Amino acid sequence: MDLDFTAAEDAFRAEARAWLTAHVPHTPLPSLETEEGFAAHREWEGTLSADRWSVVSWPEEYGGRGASLLRWLIFEEEYFAAGAPGRVSQNGINLLAPTLFEHGTDEQRARVLPSMASGEVIWAQAWSEPESGSDLASLRSTAVRTDGGWLLRGQKTWSSRAAFADRAFGLFRSDPDAAKPHQGLTYLMFPLDADGVTVRPIGRLDGKPAFAELFLDDVFVPDEDVIGAPGQGWRVAMSTAGNERGLTLRSPGRFTAAAERLTGLWRETADPSDTALRDRVADAVVKARAYRLFAYAGVSRIAAGGSIGAESSLNKVFWSELDIALHETALDLLGPLGELSDGAADAPAHGGWAEGHTFSLAGPIYAGTNEIQRDIIAERLLGLPKGRR
Amino acid sequence: MRFLLDDEQREFARSLDSMLTAADTPTAVRAWAAGDTAPGRALWSRLAEAGVFALAVPERHDGLGPLPVELAVAFTELGRHAVPGPVVETVSAAAFLDRLDDAAAAAWLPQIASGKAVVSLCLPAAGSPYALDPDAADAVLVVEGDTVRLAETAGPVQPSADPARRLARPLGGTVLAQGPAVAAAAAHAAEVAALATAAQSLGLGRALLDRTVEYVKQRTQFGVAIGSFQAVKHRLADTLIALEFAQPLLHSAALALAEGADHRSAEVAAAKVTAGEAAYAAARTALQLHGAVGYTEELDLALWIRKARPLRDAWGTPAACRARVLAS
Ligand SMILES: Cc1cc2nc3c(=O)[nH]c(=O)nc-3n(C[C@H](O)[C@H](O)[C@H](O)COP(=O)(O)OP(=O)(O)OC[C@H]3O[C@@H](n4cnc5c(N)ncnc54)[C@H](O)[C@@H]3O)c2cc1C
């Protein structure tokens, strides 16, 4: 058992750090949940990909570096430590790409992945529907067979940044007569500017306009944009969901960096006699460390031939609660300054703590709510009987 | 980087687990609580045969160690089975004596390695003025400032919340050594004790979770297994999450001790507070989900439940650990 890196891994870290030092914008970009921020972040994706840093773990032919999972973790640590911008391509990179690697065709990979890596095409996840959130399999939007493809009909909602994105991927009911709700679903990709698509932005809790609902009225999708076999969409989507909850959506580097910033804030601002607050800072630091080490253990397990299945639900609950704890503790350290948000002149970290706090509150909801994750943990990892859902 | 136990370490854990299961440890725990230490000492000999105490003793004194990672593995199993006695104190006494490097080390370390000597250790600077089970020990070391003495008598024994733990302030005795090396050795021994206690807590928590999962699968109310109720499931899911994320902290702390890394104190503290809190929360959950039967002494579960809080606070309270995490 060891936590030592090889000389080659250290060199990789140094190379990433040097590149980030040279390229990370000095002033933070505007929020990627706004139109101008979205554009600025798209440009940043282009900068990353020009030097092959946008998708380090992908094969080189699609714009990556063929880096191991461990190197990906190292890169992410450096990325967040450098204070680099959030990733506007995250839905594509973390959700669609793994699905295409597992279930897509060579043609699809060649067509979709390079433009995703470069930020030229930005993808939105169109899974949720007004009546189908946690019970995703109850979805009602349909895909009806037509000449050479499918016609999509229905409504999707809460789709992050779909207001500005280029294309979307989601599940549609292709066989309304299937015996069970999980059957007869098909996984498809479609353009957001296609005929029949209406995108209506929905403001979020943080005032950002980047959610959207999508109305689909006989939107044509060619067969080549079906992922996996028609009718097998649930299975295809669930392999994606594991990625979303697991490591790739929220890599440890993010929390390690936040914990560092929190410790700095504590040293600068805290009243040393306030041990209650000190204890919460320590807990957040320890948890960020635990998350990082848990990831290293997971990566070691995968390297030794294991796989991560329902364990990704452990991660999901842990990182989402950790994220809230980190931000709540920071706000308590800041006191009245804590409410200054979004670039406020007087706010430490440009108001990032307040903004990050509001965003952290969504963590237990998206990527499968924590209630659903706890069900999965109890049933699949502890073997408890299935109850009523 | 391979942050995983190797096959040998996993096999070591498995063999200790099956040995302790076969040895009917709960009976030894109950006897220990009742003042009969013979079954506990018998268990102790078998642990020694398996090499547990030798892990804390260097080769030049007939040991195998010091091997902190293997110690963490072993103490997780000791915790899983709620093994009674000053096990943590004995291995940390070994770590202490090893650093003194004199006649006392030569006299005691081979005996510790072989399981012949049960040693208790009292380091008031590390938090508690009490020694654990000094009345059952062959030797009791007390470190005050930079002086260590070999206590003459155990002192009057006081009951603990865990009946299988007995506390006393050891009295009198002769000075064994004095000087800055004593204080340094004591600080090192406190780290080893905190690590071993964290490991015990983790094992204790896992045992509590396992037993509770089995129980909620078979206990029915309202016509169904209580384990199918979401409030029950979610509490157990949280218990698993807390234990799963404590484990890598424990292993990382053991590595830091093995390497003598600068950050070892913060690492050990992080492992200690996390494992201690996780095990105590597991005990609360175990009791709640067992209902009133969990509140009885008859059920072996009580042996684990009552140990959780004392272990959480021994060798570094959560507050002390949190302060150390931020001290570096
Ligand atoms: C910031 C953010 C970004 C998002 N981005 C996207 C996106 O890009 N694409 C997309 O498709 N979707 C997105 N979503 C939607 C998200 O996936 C859903 O919100 C989520 O699946 C939960 O569905 P719901 O909101 O309809 O809540 P509901 O399913 O209605 O649940 C409401 C509450 O009831 C609880 N509940 C429901 N069922 C159970 C049960 N069986 N047991 C216990 N509790 C239960 C839930 O846990 C929750 O607390 C996003 C959401 C947020 C907040």
Automatic annotation (TrEMBL), chain A:
Residues 231-382 form the Acyl-CoA dehydrogenase/oxidase C-terminal domain. Residues 124-219 form the Acyl-CoA oxidase/dehydrogenase middle domain. Residues 7-120 form the Acyl-CoA dehydrogenase/oxidase N-terminal domain. InterPro entries: Acyl-CoA_Oxase/DH_mid-dom, Acyl-CoA_Oxase/DH_mid-dom_sf, AcylCo_DH-like_C, AcylCo_DH/oxidase_C, AcylCoA_DH/ox_N, AcylCoA_DH/ox_N_sf, AcylCoA_DH/oxidase_NM_dom_sf, Mycobact_Acyl-CoA_DH. Keywords: FAD, Flavoprotein, Oxidoreductase. Its cofactor is FAD. GO terms for molecular function: flavin adenine dinucleotide binding; oxidoreductase activity, acting on the CH-CH group of donors. GO terms for cellular component: plasma membrane. PANTHER family: ACYL-COA DEHYDROGENASE, ACYL-COA DEHYDROGENASE FADE29. Belongs to the acyl-CoA dehydrogenase family. This is Acyl-CoA dehydrogenase. It comes from Streptomyces vietnamensis. The lineage of its organism: Bacteria, Bacillati, Actinomycetota, Actinomycetes, Kitasatosporales.
Automatic annotation (TrEMBL), chain B:
Residues 7-116 form the Acyl-CoA dehydrogenase/oxidase N-terminal domain. One of its GO terms (molecular function) is flavin adenine dinucleotide binding. It comes from the Bacteria. Residues 188-318 form the Acyl-CoA dehydrogenase/oxidase C-terminal domain. Its cofactor is FAD. The keyword Oxidoreductase applies. Keywords: FAD, Flavoprotein, Oxidoreductase. Belongs to the acyl-CoA dehydrogenase family. This is Acyl-CoA dehydrogenase. It comes from Streptomyces vietnamensis.
